[in-house]
Amino acid sequence: MSIHKPQKNITLTRLHQMKASDEKIACLTAYDASFAAILDQVGMDIILVGDSLGMVVQGQDSTVSVTMEDMIYHSQCVSAAVKNAFVIADMPFMSYTNVEQALANATDLIQLGGAQMVKLEASTRQVSIVEELSECGIPICAHLGLRPQYIHKLGGYAMQGKDDASAKELFESAQSLQAAGADMLLLECVPNALAKKITQESSIPVIGIGAGPDCDGQILVLHDVIGITHGVTPKFAKNFLAEADDIQSAISNYVNDVKSVTFPN
Ligand code: KIV
Predict the structure, then answer these.
(1) Which residues are paired to 134 by β-bridges?
(2) Are strands 25-29 and 217-220 parallel, antiparallel or unpaired?
(3) Which atom of ligand 1 is nearest to the CA of 51?
(4) Which superfamily is assigned to 12-259 in CATH?
(5) One of 69, 135, 188, 243 is an active-site residue; which one?
């Protein structure tokens, strides 16, 4: 009897190859097994168990109430259904305030949640955390630009890096986090030109949301893609179900549009 589990198609190595060969990376969030299976079957490259679940699943008005228990539970639900896609789990608010805490919580998301990578909202403050996690073998995605966990400090969800000083700071953070060992960057709501510059200057895949067409890949929140978001839908999102017959076709069209750079337009 073999105890060897089949290798997933999408690995970090494959994602790096996709960047190198200019093949766009399609990513979407999921929070449960049924949707994760649909995303996986239509060829999604990355499935993010996002802490956006606080808003779209739990009905809160931000992500800050999401706990490690929530993230482990939803990561388990998603991982159980995914055969090919690369699964990333978000580290929730206040779960990575120091190196020891970050290491323990990231380990739980990988070991218990079944994720292949963790994502944390980052600036240069998180460099030592990224260094330690990376040294310990935990792949990291550094989320830059608009960081929803900072909502109470920001006072709203607005575009980041618009002026020269903040654009420079964001660019330098991206470089430092990559040098510290981050394996992927996610840019949320930054100007297209800045996202393009960061993508061109990075050797790791850069995924964008509201950051223009020049990133190596795109991500959206599942509920926005199938048009069931309650409350405000971000301007950069698109309801793919509006022009499709069913959920599978809508998500498949999203993957095709990301791959062909038809989305974002
Ligand atoms: O939590 C989430 O879903 C995210 C995406 C919006 C990128 O971080």
Answers:
(1) none
(2) parallel
(3) 1
(4) Phosphoenolpyruvate-binding domains (3.20.20.60)
(5) 188
Per the document, the length of the chain is 265
| Gap between the Cα atoms of 47 and 10, Å rounded | 11
At 246, list the tokens.
């069913």
Following DSSP, what letter does each residue of 2-41 receive, concatenated?
--PPPPPS--HHHHHHHHHTTPPEEEEE--SHHHHHHHHH
> Ligand 1, closest atom to CA 90?
1
pLDDT tens for each residue of 185-204? 999 999 999 999 999 999 99
* Spatial separation of the C-alpha atoms in residues 92 and 50, rounded to whole Å: 9
Measured CA to CA, the distance from residue 108 to residue 265 in angstroms comes to 38
Rounded to two decimals, the pTM is 0.97
How is the chain split into domains, by residue range?
A: 12-259
What average pLDDT is seen over the chain? 96
Give Cβ neighbours of residue 147 (< 8 Å, ≥ 6 apart): 121, 122, 123, 154, 188
Residue 51's closest CA among 42, 64, 40, 37?
Answer: 64
Query: CA-to-CA distance for 214 and 42, rounded, in angstroms?
Result: 23
| d(C-alpha 16, C-alpha 250), whole Å | 27
Active site residue 188: yes
